[in-house]
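Quarterly update, task 2.4: pyridoxal-5'-phosphate-bound model.
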Amino acid sequence: MAFGVIARYRDRLPVSATTPEVTLGEGSTPLLASTRIGPALGLRSLFFKAEGFNPSGSFKDRGMALATARAMEAQATTLVCASTGNTSASAAAYAARCGMRAVVVLPAGRVASGKLVQALAHGAHVIPVAGTFDQALAIVRQLGEMPGMALVNSINPFRLEGQKTAAFEVIEALGRAPDRLFLPVGNAGNITAYWRGFCEWEHAAQTGLPRMHGAQAAGAAPIVRGAAISNPRTVASAIRIGNPASWTTALTARDESRGSIEAVTDQEILAAQRRLAREEGLLVEPASAAGLALLTRMAGAGQIEAGETIVCVLTGQGLKDPQSFLRRVPKPAPVEASLDAVLAALDST
Ligand SMILES: *Cc1c(COP(=O)(O)O)cnc(C)c1O
């Protein structure tokens, strides 16, 4: 069986016979039917596209496989990116796999610890800068022009081409497009990529099109506000972006699909993250819960029909950002190693 997004979707991706089939086993992530949240929200067909099952723990791997393959084909020796964390984790992994160098420029002190560990473990050159993601991106745009360098941020067209395969998988799993798709919006590459994937498949096979609903964090919601933000703030570090690179294509996805891009508060994001962990067994990082936060609000306001087929994209794995839990949930204190002490502790929780 074909393995990885390039092998599985070769005829729908910009590759040639000589493009190497770079893969770490990305894609083919499960579309899980909700067991408890859907029914509680009054929705009969809610599904989670669990992108944390990708090899580096986020959807970024889909596009990174293709971007790395094309960089190798173009004889680049170094992958370079700016990152809020997951792009660098992914670039570092694929570079290691292919014997390339990875250079990652990060906003200092603002990358979740698990993601930083990934980049370092894979041997990337990690350069924190005293500034925001948007400033880091401005720097790597110039670095990417230098000989041997391949810029692998989502402004690299192969990233979005690889990411659109997630829409293909959703259609394959459901037998058609869902009625609505909810996902977080940061740099707005993913909402652009999903919309492209749905449109391409619809064009070929008439599977219908979903309404696209993007969620930005209230403190980092430039698209909702209609203006860039110089100091974006939110607990959801993966969408802490003030000037999205794919802004206009995100508006196209929203408008062509008759969807919406709305702001959700950090409180709503953390409540959705907690629910996914405690009611579905799905541990995701805060940003990944933003789509469910928006769906929860819209369902509560009666804006969704009970029979609609809804997909929420859970973009990344929760172990990447342990701090976002440990700040809120105290670690239990140890008790004496006896049955009585354990029973007493159980009684008191
Ligand atoms: C990158 C990322 C996002 C945001 O995706 P964009 O394409 O930048 O809009 C959301 N969640 C996670 C976990 C991410 O890594």
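Highlight for this quarter: The mean pLDDT is 96.
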